[in-house]
Each structure stands twice: as C-alpha cells, then as structure tokens.
Design goal:
13 strands, two-stranded antiparallel ribbon, single chain, 7-stranded antiparallel sheet, alpha+beta
C-alpha cells in the first residue's frame, strides 16, 4: 500500500488481478490522454456472472471502481463508518469516479445494456420519470456498438466516468468502449439521474456483482478512515 498524496488516503500502487476472471486492474487510469494529470485511482473490483442452463457458473466480466482518491478522502473522511454509508457516498455527485468493465467472454452489447437497464429502470422512473429518455438514449447507443448479432470480443474494456462538466457545470456520464488502449466509441450524456443509475447497478440494492459491491464498500471505508 502507498499514499496517494502526502496527507491523504492509502491505496495500492500495484496492478490488481480480479480472482474470478484474471482481469488486471492497474492502480491508476489516465482518463484524458492529452492530460496526464486527469487520473483516477483503483478502489476495488469483483466479477459479474450468471448460471447457464446446466446451472454452471459463467463469468461474464470483471468490474472495478476508480475514483479521485484525494477528493474522496477530503469529502468523506470519517463519514463512511459502514458499508451502507460507503455505497451511499459513492452514489453521490461531486467526486470523479469511473466504472471499468473488462469482458471475460464474447458479449453482445444488447445483453450487456439490458442487464443494467433492467436493474435501474424502475428506480430511475421513481426518482425522475423524464430522465428515462437518457437511459433509453444510452441503451440504444450501447446496442449500436455491438447489436444483437455482433459480439464484442473478450478483453474489450467499457468505461463509465461520472464527473462534473466544467463547461456546463452539470453532471456528465461518459461511456467509452476501448480495446488495447484505443478508444473505439464514446458517448457523453448530461444526466445526474442516469449517472447515479449506472453506478447504482453495481453499488445499489441487489447489485449486479455482490463481490464488487462488497470489496468496493470495504475499501471505501478504509480509504476514508
């Protein structure tokens, strides 16, 4: 473990391997290749899986969370004493954070998007029904990237970054599909409800990955002690 700043939180400086899929998570992600200071640090990871018709477990992808560790430490120091408080903090705006997905098998984007959509559509409608248009826009864009028949290959990375757009001062969720450090497609949507919903699919009630949710919450508590 190492300090992220001289007076701030302790986070690993080593690449972490997710145990179920073997996917590797570097300690730091550079979000903007033109600005090496625009980075987020690894917090925790887990695996999303399902049972096939033979009830055999199939690992679909690894998922990890990165965040601006110094910003999170300053904002939530000694304010997240429980896993529930840690998850709630991570579902609030103000701290830049990224969900990084690494596919463990060929995946069509229809199923990927539908899985998330089914988790968050109802809660988003209850919070702000009009914002379902942003979920539909995001879902349709995701489907266009792979569709029903074209599968994304194993190892492809999907990033979802929630941050404040400095130009509009609005919450923005940026989704990228990447392969071998190349950005293949990008979509930016200004919607706090959508951003919260996408993160809640992994950190809210009945998350897509219990292992990721638990690991991330535990590490968030340690980060902010």
């Amino acid at each position: 473990m190492a300090f992220a700043s001289n007076d701030g939180p302790r986070l690993t400086n080593r690449t972490v391997m997710e145990s179920e899929t073997g996917a590797k998570f570097p300690p730091v992600l550079v979000l903007d290749p033109t600005d090496e200071t625009d980075t987020v640090r690894f917090l925790g990871a887990g695996c999303v899986s399902h049972r096939n018709w033979r009830f055999k477990k199939v690992n679909d992808y690894a998922v990890g969370l990165y965040l601006d560790a110094d910003q999170a430490y300053k904002t939530y120091k000694k304010k997240v004493p429980t896993p529930e408080a840690a998850r709630e903090a991570l579902l609030r705006p103000g701290v830049k954070k990224t969900i990084r997905v690494v596919l463990a098998r060929e995946t069509d984007t229809f199923r990927f998007a539908k899985r998330i959509n089914d988790k968050i559509e109802s809660s988003m409608a209850q919070e702000h029904f009009g914002d379902l248009m942003w979920l539909e826009l995001w879902r349709d864009w995701m489907i266009e990237q792979g569709g029903y028949h074209t599968k994304l290959p194993k190892g492809v990375e999907i990033r979802m970054t929630w941050e404040m757009d400095e130009e509009t001062n609005k919450d923005m969720i940026t989704t990228e599909i990447r392969r071998r450090d190349r950005v293949l497609a990008t979509k930016r949507i200004h919607s706090k409800t959508l951003a919260k919903g996408l993160f809640a699919s992994y950190l809210g009630e009945s998350p897509l990955s219990e292992s990721a949710s638990n690991d991330i919450a535990e590490r968030m508590m340690n980060l902010c002690r």
